Amino acid sequence: AKQQVQQSAQPEQAKTPEEKVDVVKIGAIFPLTGSAASTGVKLKYAVETAEEIINGEHPELDMPLAREAGLPNLGNAKVKFIFADHQANPEVAKSEAERLIQNEKVVGLIGCYHSSATKPASQVAERFRIPFVAGSSSSAALTERGLEYFTRIAPNDDMETAFFFEYLKYLNATYDAGIKTIGVAYIDNEYGVHAAQMVDKWLKDKYQGEGFEKVVDVKYPKDLSNVDTEVQKIKAAKPDAIFHASYIGDITQFVKKYKEFDVVPKAVVNYCGGFQDPQFVVNLGKDADFFSGSNATAPSLFAKMDTLNKINEIYKKKSGVDFDGPALEDFASAMVIADAINQAGTIDSQKVMEAIKSAVFEAPYFVSGKIKFGKNGQNEYSASVMVQTQNGKYEAVWPVDYQTAEPIPTFPAWKNR
Amino acid sequence: MVETKKIFSQKQVLSWMCILIAVLPLAIPNMNFHHVMIMFVIFAALGQSWNIITGFAGQTSFGHAAFFGIGAYTSSVLFWKYMVSPWVGMLLGALIAMGVAVIVSYPCFQLKGHYFAIATLAIGEIIQQIFVSWEYVEGATGISLPILPEGFLQLQFHQSKLPYFYIAYVLFVLVIVVAYGIEHSKMGYYLKAIRESQEAGEAIGINPTRYKLFAMMISSFMTAIFGSLYAQYILYIDPFMVFSLPLSMKIVLLTVLGGLGTLYGPIIGAAILIPLSEYTRILFGGTGKGIDLIIFGLLVVLVACYQPKGMIGLFGGWARKGQRTGGEKGE
Amino acid sequence: MNKVMLKVDGITMRFGNLIANEDVEFQVHEGEIVSLIGPNGAGKTTLFNCITGFYKPYAGRVIFRGKDITFLPPHQICRLGLTRTFQIVKTLKEMTVKENILTGAFLHARKRKEAEAIAEEIIELTHLTGKKDQLGANLTIADKKRLEIARALATKPLMLMLDETMAGLNQTEIKEAMELCVKLKKAGVTLVIVEHIMEAIMPISDRVIVLNSGKKIAEGAPEDVVKDEQVIKAYLGERYYAKSKKC
Amino acid sequence: MLKVKNVSAGYEHIPVLFDVSFEIQGGEVVAIVGSNGAGKTTILRTISGILKPMAGEIEFLGERIDNIPAHKIVEKGIAHVPEGRHVFGKMTILDNLLLGAYTLKSQEDIRSVLKEVYDIFPKLKDRENQKAETLSGGEQQMLAIARAMMSKPKLLLVDEMSLGLMPLLVDKVLSILKAISERGVTVLLVEQKVQEALEIADRGYVLQTGRVIAEGTGKALLASERVKRAYLGM
Amino acid sequence: MILQIIVSGILMGFVYSLVAVGLTLTWGVLDIINFAHGEFLMMGMYSAFWMYSLFGMDPLLSIPFAMGIVFVMGYFTYRLIIKKVINAPGLTALLATFGLSLLLRNLAQFIWSPNYRFINQSIVMDKKIVLGSITLGVPQMVAAISSIVMTMAVFYFVEKTKTGRAIQATALDKNTAKLMGIHTEKIYALTFGISGACVGIAGALTATFFPIHPESGALYSLLAFVIVALGGFGNIKGALYSAIIIGITEALGGFLFGTQFKYALVFLIYLIVIQIKPKGLFGW
Ligand SMILES: Nc1ncnc2c1ncn2[C@@H]1O[C@H](COP(=O)(O)OP(=O)(O)OP(=O)(O)O)[C@@H](O)[C@H]1O
Ligand SMILES: Nc1ncnc2c1ncn2[C@@H]1O[C@H](COP(=O)(O)OP(=O)(O)OP(=O)(O)O)[C@@H](O)[C@H]1O
Ligand SMILES: [Mg+2]
Ligand SMILES: [Mg+2]
């Protein structure tokens, strides 16, 4: 017990590098119960997929750590992800982070999907000097805190917003879509509010000058029973494009009501959230068509990306669905942290962090093919493509290099579908 | 147990409880356990505070998270924007919470029973919405507190959780002392009289509004203190976390679980509920199938069914076992 | 005659269309025992409620020791020295008998010790010694009524208004209650009593006021009131009349 | 008709009745008298099944009833007018009466009892649709008795019905009980007003701290010194 | 457009009343706070979803099934849980039903996964009636009409039938009700069952236009609490009327003051009304 006291009194003290390890433990904190559980559980499957690839022998996969069992540079030590549930509660995220570090002795952390949970959890990691690689948490604020032990894979909402405007410009230029006015519909929480702030920021900084104009701003409460009023407001303002920062439950209702009230914008672009969940297409069937959003992947890309396709098969066996963006991003976070440990050849957290910060990680599952973190910890290679639902499938429509189908630039009227 | 009740006074039992709580973290030097202990002490104190207005005075509040959140936000905003010591923020937060309590609860005191309870729920939700929409306090985004070097003045400790624990503990003991003082003074009797029958109370010279208001003020003041402490401990707050209905309900439920209207109740309740929820989550939370909460929910149901008067009922119940049961016919 | 303690001046009280008290007027002098009788539903309890501040009368005024108390809240009226009991007893159920009384005693006690002393004294006086640690909820009706009086007495009232506190007592206990009333009177407490048990109140009352359908129909010495035609017809019934004549 | 044999009963394991036995013949009016807290109410609650006896047996018309639930006992023909009236205040008088007839199956029956009850209590008929809580105490007492009559009981248990009634009404209600018993209903009466109760009762039992200490005809008990001293204050 | 919003609000109000009527029976009439009420609704939705995914059954056809399932749930909730806590002081029933709500919610996650489900085949699906500038969704219309029918049926049942009277009597005074020959245990269980049946129907009806999810009952039950209080506890018609008021407040208030405030406005309306009528709009 005495030793333990010392240890807990000096959390920053690193483990001796010569220590022989059989199992490398990494903590993974996700919302596994509560209203985001549907996503959280998928993220868990994604991380389990990564674990399987790392620990098993997968010569068919052309990527680091796949061919050999375990981490070759650590004597083929196995990787074990230890899952914890933060219940969408920052307090729990914090205490789980502490517990994983203290009791489970994890050498790295990934998670937490909710930016509000990632914030305190990554602070804990910082305090203990344990690397934290966030997958899908998208709040730009995360990488603005100057943390040394924090990195993030997903493009943040800042980058996403610019990406959306560029896409709209592309539609205007190439297809003469004539999109000028935009509306923003977003959930009243950190995710939605932050996204909406980014829209305002980019409009002011750049895109207003290029002819875009915001005509309506609909902020709706976190728990929601119906969206009639919200949709009426949007309908009245008649925006050409609607930016949505919504979860799967709300976006489904919005689409239903767009149909009921015959709202026909030219384009609807979605921040990484509900739209990207394959359940969107399952639930809405044909009504799901023609919506678009940024996504780290799309099933239609699988044909083009062999490795991704094979990874997806493993994932699909577990989860029953195809990879979606957030799941792939959290898969990537698991791969990256394991890769970094392997490259460092040790579980010494400082060395691992150095590896994370300096290496360029191979990521054949991303369209960008690579992951590299900038000074602030943000992945410099945006892995996003613009996807659009067409005939019940997510097609990659932009940038042109990754196109699996041409974008359909304007929404057809509901009755003409 | 009835016997022991006679041998030990309430004061002694409480003192023993407090001593036990104080030494437990020293005996088990595990950081996660310390976290559980901190949460336990904070929630026991919250339950104790809530108990004053609901257990003693009989006015069911489902909106105590409002005061908790006000405490958390006041100290956090002051600290984060103006670098005001959290201790000052704590006091100010408590005073503001008290002010808000007076303003919002005064008109509600004319309401009886469930109508009052729903009113407090409504107030809690409205206050949450105000904070969600209030840009000055960062709205829905929440506030991450700056991390400073360790120190009592800035209420931050990074090496060990024990300082947090003992600060929470001292405040917790203070809350017990206050609650004990109230229960054994004129005010305690008056509050209980109001709970039992407001009219009877009025007839013997009790001004119900005034005493309910006092109770609410004390209760909200203490609740806010722990809100500040909580924010300082987690170092991050957002409105969904500190103003949430589930938080209000947690305070209610743990007190009911332990025994409503008694000083032991919140302590026993928190001692059961907090570790139970933490450890079921730790053991089963990683499965992603909700098994932890299935088990937790089931245990709560069982406790409620078999100890309907709160766990405190256990202590009264032992002595009576073995007698032939009579009493109200069940069927 | 002693000073006027309570003056009820033209009290009228309505519930919707129902007139429960109509222009009721009477006075109570210091040190008196006044009984208020009348049929069920005559408005006696309602009148109590108007006097003690629980209802705001529709019209009329209540003067207590020269002070207009018509619109004062009950707790202030109690502080002035006018305390009442409830016909439908309002026992503080989850508190013991002693705690019930202690609560009343706190009105005039700064310290807990003082309050305890008052409470002990009242417990003696009301013969509740054996039950002082029982919970209010577990008492029989009669004990609850006794407790109701005890709690009121603990506020050290100058005037006490009792609403059917003897209902449910047997003859022996009624005797005790009567003695208590007389004792209180001697101690200088003015009493207003509502009761349906004639045997109990007739002997101890200085004056009787009769209410019927909200109106005062008679007032006077007990022996006069029982002979009143109207009172017999509306309230006492022939049997009582016959019985009382027999004695 | 009713046999109570060595019954003990109480609340939350604390007995208040000890080994109580008595009998009632069909058509009688029997009074149980005794001071406060003697356990009179407890006896009635035990007979009607609200309370479960801790020991002993209760037989009604040759059948054991101490182990069947209250609502079944009503079906067997025992109606209980509880202490303190307990009318359903928020409901109308008619609804209260219909609830009294809850155990009757045929509409025909209900209609005929209702008529009969209205005959005895004409005042209730006039106020059929008034909420019971707006009745004065005496009227509520009548309603409580009428409601009990609605189940066509063979045995009527009446608890402390004189409580809070004005003298005129006490007389009236007692004579109504007498009338009811003349219609063939057996009545078990629990009363504080010893004199009045024993006057109309055929037989009486005196209960003291949970035990039967005397029994006899109403007249005999009234004449007994013991009763006089203890309960009549003479 | 204002008109459209008001109409939408009214339709929504009817949906709420479906949920609130069940609650007013247990909370208002029997004075038991059933915290798991929202979870009963969720179970009703999943019952419909289950029938749909197993047999492709139209949710409207699975109404009787959902009703039955949740009736049974309500019935056994009483028999197994509430019965044990009903005589306990104050808030114990709240504690028990809170545990139950957690249990059900996570059981649903365990059985049906936490995915957001949607039923997209029903004869009413996507149908709408357009009257000038006003659009009425047929699913909501069906829900609204069923809601009126159901509220009236429950009202009639409680006020006019023998069993209904027994429910009232049991609620007012349990022991005296026993003396009337009422099997109060059965009445309690039945009332819980009926309350469950109401939300069961509500669940099947709302399943035609709302996503189904383990958490989907939570918000409804919160609103139902306010509606029941606003209408006056135990008042069935009051629940209907106040549900409509809440529906309109939410829609119109959200439109005028910002949709993020719509529930806050609902709570505010309650606070204002209750100052004027401390026992709810139609309370005793
Ligand atoms: N709060 C009220 N609302 C409506 N009516 C009321 C209210 N209180 C009393 N009443 C009515 O006023 C009348 C007088 O009632 P009150 O209780 O004063 O009678 P009482 O003289 O005390 O009768 P009792 O001797 O039976 O106690 C009755 O008809 C009663 O129904
Ligand atoms: N619900 C209860 N819980 C505990 N004890 C009770 C309860 N009801 C009555 N008692 C106790 O049981 C004893 C007998 O009470 P019971 O009501 O049968 O007396 P009673 O003869 O009817 O008296 P009264 O004339 O006052 O009505 C009393 O000592 C009383 O304190
Ligand atoms: Mg009266
Ligand atoms: Mg009795």
Automatic annotation (TrEMBL), chain B:
Pfam families: BPD_transp_2 (PF02653). InterPro entries: ABC_transp_permease, LivM-like. It is found in: Cell membrane. One of its GO terms (cellular component) is plasma membrane. It is a multi-pass membrane protein. The chain crosses the membrane at residues 12-28, 34-53, 65-83, 89-109, 164-182, 213-231, 251-276, 282-306. It comes from the Bacteria. GO terms for molecular function: branched-chain amino acid transmembrane transporter activity. The keyword Flavoprotein does not apply. Keywords: Cell membrane, Membrane, Transmembrane, Transmembrane helix. PANTHER family: HIGH-AFFINITY BRANCHED-CHAIN AMINO ACID TRANSPORT PROTEIN BRAE, HIGH-AFFINITY BRANCHED-CHAIN AMINO ACID TRANSPORT SYSTEM PERMEASE. This is High-affinity branched-chain amino acid transport system permease protein LivH.
From TrEMBL, chain C:
It comes from the Bacteria. InterPro entries: AAA+_ATPase, ABC_AA/LPS_Transport, ABC_transporter-like_ATP-bd, BCA_ABC_TP_C, P-loop_NTPase. Keywords: ATP-binding, Hydrolase, Nucleotide-binding, Transport. It is an enzyme of class 3 (hydrolase). Residues 6-238 form the ABC transporter domain. SUPFAM superfamilies: P-loop containing nucleoside triphosphate hydrolases (SSF52540). One of its GO terms (cellular component) is plasma membrane. One of its GO terms (molecular function) is ATP hydrolysis activity. It holds the Pfam family BCA_ABC_TP_C. Its EC number is 3.6.3.-. This is Lipopolysaccharide export system ATP-binding protein LptB. It comes from Thermotalea metallivorans.
UniProtKB/TrEMBL annotation, chain D:
InterPro entries: AAA+_ATPase (IPR003593), ABC_transporter-like_ATP-bd (IPR003439), ABC_transporter-like_CS (IPR017871), BCAA_Transport_ATP-bd_LivF (IPR052156), P-loop_NTPase (IPR027417). Coiled coil: none annotated. Gene3D superfamilies: P-loop containing nucleotide triphosphate hydrolases. Pfam families: ABC_tran (PF00005). SMART domains: AAA (SM00382). GO terms for molecular function: ATP binding; ATP hydrolysis activity; branched-chain amino acid transmembrane transporter activity. It comes from the Bacteria. Residues 2-234 form the ABC transporter domain. This is High-affinity branched-chain amino acid transport ATP-binding protein LivF. Belongs to the ABC transporter superfamily. Keywords: Amino-acid transport, ATP-binding, Nucleotide-binding, Transport. GO terms for biological process: L-amino acid transport.
UniProtKB/TrEMBL annotation, chain E:
GO terms for cellular component: plasma membrane. GO terms for molecular function: transmembrane transporter activity. It comes from the Bacteria. The keyword Ribonucleoprotein does not apply. The keyword Transmembrane helix applies. It is found in: Cell membrane. GO terms for biological process: amino acid transport. It is a multi-pass membrane protein. Pfam families: BPD_transp_2 (PF02653). InterPro entries: ABC_transp_permease (IPR001851), BCAA_transport_permease (IPR052157). Keywords: Amino-acid transport, Cell membrane, Membrane, Transmembrane, Transmembrane helix, Transport. The chain crosses the membrane at residues 6-30, 61-81, 93-112, 132-158, 187-212, 218-240, 252-276. Belongs to the binding-protein-dependent transport system permease family. LivHM subfamily. This is High-affinity branched-chain amino acid transport system permease protein LivH. It comes from Thermotalea metallivorans. The gene is livH_3.
